[in-house]
Design goal:
By secondary structure, this protein is α+β, with helices and mostly antiparallel strands. The chain is built from 6 helices and 9 strands.
Length: 219
């Protein structure tokens, strides 16, 4: 694989002593966090407020090498110096799916303005899945893709399948962007009925974030 795109999702949980700081102190630290975001040269940096976990901030990074991702992560944690802990860290590599066709320019898509909501989770499949002939796996996945794309509630949902074989305890990290959580729930519910569900053995922890400024963390 050449010209890899590395993906990093990590969530940060602010500690109780963060809220003991006065408004000015918190505002100064958040300004430093935003300054770090502007200084780093990655393919994309997308930052969210956590919706479903005790985490306060969620980052979704994409870059051309692992060191740039690590530097960014370390810089953010250094800026929060003792007022936060990491909650979840997911690492993966993007590559085109063997079950889809087309000219998907992932770099340009990643650089585009983010949608309002973001969902990410690691996933693992049963070993029996990999023992099936490729044609059978392709038929199963084509059904999955067809149901997702043609569902009436799928109004511009963006999806990215990334791979972690041999890199982490999971095999994939699936990433999604959407403008409506209710539409997203409808599509996911429909996908529970397709054959591909039979071979999935793990798809958690699930991270949901909303594109909101960090102002609420210091006001």
């Amino acid at each position: 694989m050449t010209n890899e795109i590395y993906m990093h999702v990590f969530s940060i949980k602010l500690l109780p002593k963060w809220w003991s700081l006065n408004k000015g102190e918190r505002s100064k630290i958040i300004s430093l966090v935003k300054e770090i975001e502007n200084q780093h040269n990655l393919i994309s940096i997308k930052r969210y407020v956590s919706v479903n976990r005790p985490s306060s901030i969620v980052y979704w990074l994409s870059g051309d090498d692992t060191s740039s991702l690590m530097r960014f992560r370390s810089s953010i944690l250094s800026a929060l110096k003792g007022y936060a802990d990491e909650d979840i860290v997911l690492f993966s590599i993007f590559k085109p799916s063997p079950y889809t066709r087309g000219n998907f320019d992932v770099r340009e898509t990643l650089k585009s303005s983010p949608l309002r909501y973001f969902v990410a989770y690691p996933m693992k499949k049963d070993v029996e899945w990999y023992l099936l002939p490729f044609q059978e796996r392709e038929d199963v996945m084509r059904e999955h893709i067809k149901v997702a794309k043609e569902h009436p509630a799928n109004k511009g949902i963006k999806s990215y399948t990334t791979y972690s074989f041999g890199l982490a305890d999971y095999e994939f990290v699936v990433l999604y962007e959407m403008d409506s959580l209710s539409d997203w729930v409808e599509v996911v519910e429909a996908l529970r009925q397709v054959r591909a569900r039979k071979w999935i053995v793990k798809e958690e922890p699930l991270i949901t974030g909303e594109l909101i400024d960090l102002e609420h963390l210091y006001t």
